[in-house]
Design goal:
- The complex is a heterodimer.
- By secondary structure, chain A is α+β, with helices and mostly antiparallel strands.
- Chain A is built from 12 helices and 17 strands.
- Chain A has 2 domains: 207 residues, Serine Threonine Protein Phosphatase 5, Tetratricopeptide repeat (Alpha Horseshoe), CATH 1.25.40; 274 residues, Porin, CATH 2.40.160.
- Helix content of chain A is 36%, strand content 37%.
- Chain A has a 14-stranded antiparallel barrel.
- In chain A, strand 12 and strand 13 form a beta hairpin.
- Chain B is α+β, with helices and mostly antiparallel strands.
- In chain B, the strands form 7 sheets. Chain B has a 15-stranded mixed beta sheet that branches. In chain B, strands 24-25-26 form a 3-stranded antiparallel beta sheet, with no helix packed on it.
- Classes of the chains: A alpha+beta, B alpha+beta.
- The interface between A and B is large, with 135 and 90 residues.
Chain lengths: 535, 425
């Protein structure tokens, strides 16, 4: 029995000793494997690191944390070797062991991104963001993936969120994000038939914002290249003047329009001091040609000679109608002096307009001199309101009529304001005119307010625009007429028929209210269709 | 008797002389390998001895492993021609690599001879010279360009103008003026260059693959392998540096869990990961690939990610990949020729196949990638409604303003404003 007990104790001791040395062996082996893996990793030998970690994986007495580390470590090695499928497997295993260091989701997200598992990648970058690891880049990945998944709105939201992150972390990323927003706008714009307007007003300015973030970054030339490419593609090369205003591109502008329409009540007003309504309707044809070329002798001056020709012929050939046949020749010269005001671009405007009109004033089916006018204008265009440019003009017009008594001089003060909204533009025009006529009974003071709402392309089919003008006329020396009003709403639909060829459908209603019902009061509507070609 | 004794003396002396001229023995051989000694060419077999002054030539897909008298080993790759100009246990040896590839592991015994700051072996090529201070490296020349990569130890590398010099002192002078290469780095001397490239870290994947492929028997990429393409982790617009994770968290985890502190990569000459070119001085980006057959350097690509642990860039999938034998496989199913031109077949606009020949880009582009390899799903794009995304910000001050009465016209697809009817101004 004693012998048995002795053998038992002996055996137990030997077993315990063996276990101990086994554990010591594995412990030593584990440490040396970890050491070897670390050495290999430090020298960038990732395949060798993985081999060592694989050996470690199969050693016993490995804690859950150690195993988690091995999978995470292997996954990072696979990421560096660009073996993303293996990286994903190992990140999964690490997460399965609830081992999740702060950068794991980021690295895992990158592997999923490279493996084109985009929605899963986005989830990992969200986790990374929650852990505040590489916040700006994580946001960029989320935005970029959203864009690739077609969720453009979401993409823009995330790109914009990068701005809120501390600049030191996000400057390069912010610039790239602004560029990406520009790319999204461009993708969208190029699907519209009215691409150019969107590119000019949104895409290029967005790329400019991106460029301004850091003009000296490696990305800046790429952004500039994008802008230049678009400007070339859409004839938008903007040579800026000294205050930053772009020059007209191309410098010339030519337009030819042919219109056919119906005037419900053809009115005769060759002197603009009298109105004689025919109370008859007639069709009409109208031809309008215009040409303009802008020169830039320096980077602060522009000179633009302009010429217009307009001819109207009525279809109804009765005297009170055909006496309205007329043509107008109108050369002009427009100049600007560019400067800055309130640190923003501004221009001094100086224009001269000459009009020479002929009309069948004697009802002889012959066009004869009706009037000529010289107009001088001095103005200032500036940027005061956030919505767009404002313009103030002072205008002096000398009107020479075929009737001496109707010769007149007009002084006008004009204010214009443009307000740009999402794919719409609102233009407000107001003027106060003081007209002194040779025959002083025709003297008037007039106040006019007009607003136009120009809308973008509706369902890629047409662009509508609405306008309304209200004019208050005070015939200061003729109390019989009382205070007169001209109310003039208009509506227009435009559609691109072919490149440079447009079709415009117009409707215009006029109501002139006067106490002098016989000579001034009238109403009429004009509807017409115009074909317009732009060279 | 005297005669017999004389003959014996003569034989033993000549044998001793012959033995003294033998410098290396063939330990492994594949394919056809010849040795030319004093105008006599014989096919080599295992255990054959090679004398100093011999020229060893390997045929295509052939290879020979030589063990030198100092136990150093030299593996000569396929299509190579190597002249062992001089080799002894006491003085630096001189090997002339006329063309082809050498992998060498120089023994520490050999390296311990004499001054540790002097080269123990020189390998010359038609335009470069390598001074070996230890221990494991590869050198390749096509007779025009020479490229070398170091796996372990230290080597010095420089351009060689006179390949016929075999004076150790002169060669030492030349390599001393050259570049010092650290493990994992490569350098190239091109035909028209005045100096070797500044050492840069070789692409980590290529380095590991080459290091394993010491007998040149790893298989070249199959066509299916070449087609296996991954995407870059770098999204368009960002640089590989900004998306890089510096592995500090991993190192911290290793320290906490395994109790080991990892050192960082400290190759001072490779600090500038982006690389540069200033006059004749060219430093390729860390992580560049070397096409050894041509000596051409291939930059990692604009959308490659920086590995902060090694301070080198990974190879962008848009550039290509590394095969199991360490060779470069161009992206898009292209092939690289022995003179370093990339040939890609594409379908032309008329539906006919076109062959495009391009030169690899050696300098890493500074700008981040513009387009990533990720495709944009077209289906989702069509669901967008334009006005919902465009901002509500005003037209910037730089755009043309509206003037006077407004009539909207679309001119060259842009909005312009036409003046009011004539006669009203």
């Amino acid at each position: 029995m004693k012998l048995m007990l002795g053998l038992l104790i002996c055996g137990f001791c030997l077993f315990a000793n063996a276990q101990d040395s086994n554990a010591k062996f594995y412990g030593d082996s584990k440490d040396s494997l970890f050491k070897e893996a670390s050495n290999q990793f430090s020298s960038g030998k990732y395949e060798a690191t993985i081999t060592e970690l694989n050996n470690l994986e199969f050693t016993s007495s490995m804690s859950k944390t150690s195993k988690g580390l091995i999978f995470y470590w292997k996954a990072i090695c696979y990421n560096r070797l660009q073996d993303f499928s293996e990286a994903i497997k190992n990140f999964d295993k690490a997460l399965g062991l609830e081992y999740s260091p702060v950068d794991l989701n980021y690295e895992y997200g990158q592997a999923l991104f490279a493996a084109e598992k985009l929605s899963e990648a986005r989830l990992q970058f969200r986790e990374s963001l929650k852990k505040k690891f590489k916040r700006a880049v994580s946001l960029y990945y989320i935005a970029y993936i959203s864009k690739e998944m077609g969720e453009k709105k979401k993409a823009i939201t995330f790109y914009q969120a990068i701005k809120k992150i501390d600049a030191s972390e996000s400057m390069e990323i912010r610039q790239a994000a602004e560029m990406q927003i520009g790319d999204i706008y461009l993708e969208q714009a190029e699907k519209n038939s009215d691409a150019l307007r969107t590119i000019e007003n949104y895409v290029i300015p967005q790329y400019q914002i991106a460029y301004e973030v850091d003009k000296n970054s490696p990305l800046a030339p790429l952004i500039q290249e994008k802008i230049l490419k678009l400007q070339n593609k859409y004839d938008l090369i903007l040579f800026k003047l000294r205050n930053g205003r772009p020059t007209e591109i191309p410098p010339y502008f030519m337009r030819l329009a042919l219109e056919y329409g119906i005037d419900s009540n053809v009115t005769f007003s060759p002197t603009q001091q009298e109105i004689a309504e025919s109370k008859k309707n007639s069709g009409y044809t109208r031809t309008d040609a215009m040409g303009k070329f802008t020169f830039y002798p320096s980077n602060f001056i522009s000179i633009a000679p302009e010429f217009r020709f307009n001819y109207i012929r009525y279809i109804n050939r009765i005297p009170e109608i055909y006496r309205n046949d007329n043509y107008v020749l109108a050369p002009a010269i427009r100049t600007t002096y560019e400067h800055t005001w309130n640190n923003k671009a501004a221009s001094v405007l100086f224009d001269y307009d000459y009009n020479d009109a002929k009309r069948d004033v004697n009802e002889e089916q012959k066009l004869k001199f009706a009037f000529r006018s010289h107009t001088l204008m001095l103005g200032e265009r500036f940027n005061f309101f956030r919505g767009g440019d404002s313009t103030i003009r002072l205008k002096r017009r000398f009107f020479d009529s075929y009737l001496d008594t109707s010769d007149s001089k007009t002084l006008s003060i004009i204010f214009e304001q443009n307000i740009s909204m999402t794919s719409k533009t609102l233009a407000i025009y107001s003027s106060y005119d003081v007209t002194k006529v040779k025959s002083s009974s025709y003297d008037t003071n007039g106040l006019m307010i007009r607003t136009d709402l120009i809308m973008g392309m509706y369902k890629d089919w047409f662009s509508p625009s609405l306008g309304i003008a209200v004019t208050r006329i005070d015939p200061i020396n003729n109390s019989d007429r009382g205070i007169e009003y001209l109310i003039n709403p208009s509506f227009r639909l435009s559609r691109v028929i072919k490149k440079n060829l447009h079709g415009n459908l117009k409707f215009d209603y006029s109501r002139y209210i006067s106490d002098d019902k016989d000579n001034f009061d009238y109403k009429k509507y004009i509807s017409g269709f115009e074909l317009e070609y732009i060279f | 008797m005297k005669c017999l004794f004389f003959i014996f003396i003569l034989l033993t002396t000549s044998l001793a002389f012959a033995q003294a001229k033998n410098v290396a023995v063939v330990k492994m051989l594949r394919g056809e390998v010849e040795v030319m000694t004093i105008g006599r060419t014989v096919k080599l077999k295992i255990e054959d001895w090679i004398e100093a002054g011999s020229v060893v030539k390997t045929a295509e897909k052939s290879f020979v492993k030589l063990i030198f008298i100092d136990k150093s080993q030299m593996n000569i790759g396929p299509n190579s021609e190597v002249k062992i100009e001089k080799f002894s246990q006491n003085d630096p040896g001189v090997i002339d690599l006329v063309k082809g590839k050498i992998r060498s592991q120089v023994t520490k015994d050999y390296l311990q001879m004499g001054n540790s700051n002097k080269s123990k072996l020189f390998i010359k090529t038609p335009n470069a010279v390598l001074g070996i201070r230890g221990t494991h490296f590869m050198i390749y020349t096509n007779g025009v360009n020479t490229a070398t990569v170091l796996f372990e130890g230290e080597i010095l590398f420089n351009k060689l103008d006179n390949r016929f010099t075999n004076s150790s002192e002169h060669l030492e002078e030349i390599v001393d003026r050259g570049v010092r290469i650290s493990p994992g780095e490569f350098s190239v001397v091109e035909k028209n260059s005045t100096a070797p490239t500044v050492p840069s870290i070789l692409n980590i994947k290529q380095r590991e693959a080459l290091e394993k492929n010491d007998t040149f028997d790893r298989r070249a990429p199959s066509s299916s392998e070449a087609d296996e393409e991954t995407k870059s982790v770098v999204p368009a617009g960002l640089s590989g540096k900004v998306v890089s994770n510096d592995s500090s968290i991993l190192k911290n985890e290793i320290s906490q869990v395994a109790g080991i502190n990892l050192s960082s990569h400290d190759s001072s000459s490779s600090q500038d990961a982006e690389g540069f070119k200033e006059g004749d001085i060219f430093k390729p980006a860390n992580g560049s690939i070397v096409h050894f057959e041509s000596g051409k350097i291939i930059a990692p690509g604009a959308d490659s990610a920086l590995d902060a642990n090694t301070n080198s860039y990974g190879l962008s999938p848009s550039v290509g990949s590394i095969a199991e034998d360490g060779s470069f496989v161009p992206a898009g199913g292209g092939e690289i020729t022995n003179d370093g031109k990339i040939i890609t077949s594409v379908i032309g606009p008329n539906g006919k196949p076109l062959v495009i020949v391009t030169e690899p880009v050696a300098i890493k582009p500074l700008a981040p990638a513009n387009v990533s390899g990720h495709g944009v799903p077209t289906t989702s794009i069509t669901t967008m409604t334009p006005p919902s995304i465009l901002p509500s910000s005003p037209i910037p001050s730089g755009t043309a303003p509206l003037t006077e009465f407004v009539q909207q016209n679309t001119i060259r697809n842009r909005t312009i404003i036409v003046k009011p009817p004539l006669g009203s101004n």
